[in-house]
Amino acid sequence: MDYSDEMEASSSSLSLSRYFHSVSESKLPTRIGIARSPDFAIPHFVKLHRDPSKSKYLPSRLCLASANGGGFRKAQNGVDVGDGVIIVDHGSRRKESNLMLNEFVAMFRERTKYPIVEPAHMELAEPSIKDAFNSCVQQGAKRVIVSPFFLFPGRHWHQDIPSLTAEAAKDHPGVSYVVTAPLGLHEKLVDVVNDRINYCLSHVAGEEDECSVCAGTGKCQLYN
């Protein structure tokens, strides 16, 4: 496993719960069609070169899409009725880690109000990408959006997830799909990482309980 893949796998253990709860009072819209809301300022991703070949951060291919016989709607700017969303992480042999994805998906579904949102694990655990794809279609999805819950674009994003998604789509001709970019360099991740660091330091100082990631492990402590 190369460095990028190690970074990818590590993202499956990220807990964004505390961050999202901290912005629960914000004015983020929750209706479908979030990208089209005139009152919503879309967060800025770190700006890269217009020519991706000149960027040292990301490859030229930022997302992978397939019409799969269904065709994309050119006027579509965001998740809409008839779309299914799959949040896919690496998957773990540790049950607690896999259950955290379920928690995040529940948070995501509640915040966005998207009607079809399913969790999936790339490997090692169920539901698989195929299971999640089937579930989306059974609920009426005509387009499936696969969002990798990974930090950076390593081999899993380049090869494994697209391959597994394409295989799942074979059973559903007429249903289009897209594999989005991973989290990447996003300004809000700075806040998430900083919040995590400060919370752990508060726990070490005896001011906070263990968070949901470390609960019962005793790993969040100061070593000498």
Outline the structure in words.
With 224 residues, this protein is α/β, with parallel strands linked by helices. It has helices at residues 3-10, 17-22, 95-112, 129-138, 155-169, 187-204, and strands at 64-66, 83-89, 117-121, 143-148, 176-179. The chain has a five-stranded mixed β-sheet, sandwiched between helices. It is built from six helices and five strands, in the order H-H-E-E-H-E-H-E-H-E-H. Strand 2 (83-89), helix 3 and strand 3 (117-121) form a beta-alpha-beta unit. The relative contact order is 0.19. Residues 1-62 and 70-75 have low confidence and may be disordered. The two termini are 30 Å apart. The protein is 33% helix and 11% strand.
- The ordered string of helix (H) and strand (E) elements is HHEEHEHEHEH
Helix content: 25-40%
SS field, number of helical segments? 6
- Secondary-structure-based class equals alpha/beta
Radius of gyration over C-alpha positions, nearest whole angstrom: 18 Å
**Poorly predicted runs of 5 or more residues:** 1-62, 70-75
Categorize the overall geometry: elongated
Let me know the number of strands: 5
As a percent range, the share of strand residues is 5-15%
Average pLDDT figure: 74
**Quick one: biggest sheet?**
5 strands, mixed
Strand order of the largest sheet: 1-5-4-2-3
* First-residue to last-residue Cα separation: 30 Å
